[in-house]
Amino acid sequence: MPSALPAGDPAPADGSLPASALAELGDGPVSLYLHVPFCATRCGYCDFNTYTAAELGSAPGSSRRAFLDAAEAELALAARVLGERPIATVFVGGGTPTLLESAELVGLLDAARRYFPLPEGAEVTTECNPESVDAGYLDALVAGGFNRISFGMQSARSHVLQVLDRTHTPGRVGQVVGWARAAGFVSVSLDLIYGTPGESLEDWRASLEAALAQAPDHVSAYALIVEEGTRLAAQIRRGELPAPLDDLQADCYELAEQLLSAAGMRWYELSNWSRPGHECRHNLAYWRGSPWWGIGPGAHSHVGGVRWWNVKHPRRYSAVLDAGNSPAAAREALDADARRVERVLLESRLADGLALDVLTDSERARVPGLLARGLVDLHFDDRRSSTSSGLSEGLSRPASGGGTSDRLMLSLSGRLLADAVVRDLLD
To answer: Can you tell me the distance from the alpha carbon of 407 to that of 395, in angstroms, rounded to the nearest whole number?
Structure first.
């Protein structure tokens, strides 16, 4: 089942934002996330806000047409709140966006363009289940303005796909990647999952090698997380499947780094590798705290320190917008310290690292210990250094919110323990 929404403060019915949030946004661009909540089947590990046709039924507000109309109404609401401003990136996720007809998916992008200018060269991505498209579908997407596609490959081993309840066969990925190249997508990404019950390290090696054989521009590799309330969690609880092993997942991550790096791909975020120039700009907007508006049931948004999230069920989402109101279920305004902590959490995930002057004095005092344990590296003024003099100089500078180029970056060992490193670092 989809996970529950967080608690929060009441959100205004008109969707308005505090003047401080709009002032911080200025005239700058905004990213759009478009959430398509439909899936043909529910995968056993998934707790995303998605619904099958059987779960939705035929009640008013459950159809694809109702969703598309409601999404356009929310785009109009976003334009009223934000004013006319360019789109930095567009990302269509789900769910399975490509369950929509190609004309419907392109129409969703057209609706965004009616309310916000889309500059030449803006990144426009859709996620895609390999079984849900053919060559003509992908041609239509490129003709309609999409230039990046992310295929849910997950694994090259049939028994692993079976545990994950994935419906495609391993060989299908090569076929759809070929179609995507012929259609003219600028960037092709493959999503992989490691640590599935029953998957060995050699199974994972086979998946990485199969992915690399397609010469992708980008690879995302995620450790399987067993979410409460999912069918997979119930199977593990009943002893039908073994729980993922932390040590094996660490070995899988190290193997991914080894093989992807050897193929010329660079990690730029904990779970993401790309060829130079093919980083996902939309996801970088999230990790760097840039503004985005999430369109669709259960979608989350963040503008100028204000974060909000929409009602989850498609019928409720359509009904609220039909009534002329914002679909936001609740929101929260982050104070300066909460935003600083969030910046540490997010930017520490990036290969570029975190500016040292974001840290407090007491947090910077913990850095030498992390360095001694081999969990972080330091970069001072465009040169790496771990000497005592360089360390002392870099860590003694006062916190000023981003005024120097001195940065803290996770080592490979630190990447394996990223959450623990951040916990040890923060006050």
So the answer is: 10
What is the 3-class SS of 317-330, one letter each residue? HHHHHHCCCCCEEE
> In DSSP terms, which residues pair with 223 in a beta bridge?
194
Domain 19-287 has CATH 3.40.50.720: no
Q: Which helix (H) or strand (E) holds 66?
A: helix 64-82
Give exposure, 147-170, as e/b (b: 16+ Cβ within 10 Å): bbbbbbbbbbbeebbebbebebeb
CA-closest candidate to residue 181, choices 208, 149, 203: 149
pLDDT score for 170 = 80
Q: Beta-strand (E) ranges in 288-370?
A: 292-295, 300-303, 306-310, 328-333, 354-355
Total Cβ atoms within 10 A of residue 377: 18
Q: What's the full length of the chain, in residues? A: 427
Spatial separation of the C-alpha atoms in residues 144 and 68, rounded to whole Å: 17
Q: Which of 207, 222, 212 is nearest to 177 (CA)?
A: 212
pLDDT surpassing 70 at residue 107: yes
- And the tokens for 84? 């006319």
pLDDT digits (tens, 9 = 90+) for 283-339: 999 999 999 999 999 999 999 999 999 999 999 999 999 999 999 999 999 999 999
Cβ-in-10-Å burial (0-12, 13-18, 19+) of 234 comes to middle
- Range of weakest confidence among 4-13, 221-230, 353-362: 4-13
Secondary element (H or E) of residue 225 = none
The predicted-structure confidence for 150-198, as pLDDT tens digits, reads as follows 999 999 999 999 999 887 788 899 999 999 999 999 999 999 999 999 9
Amino acid at residue number 212: L
Q: Where are the domains of the chain?
A: 19-287, 337-425
Within 10 Å of residue 81's Cβ, how many Cβ atoms?
17
Residues 221, 166: Cα–Cα separation, whole Å: 16
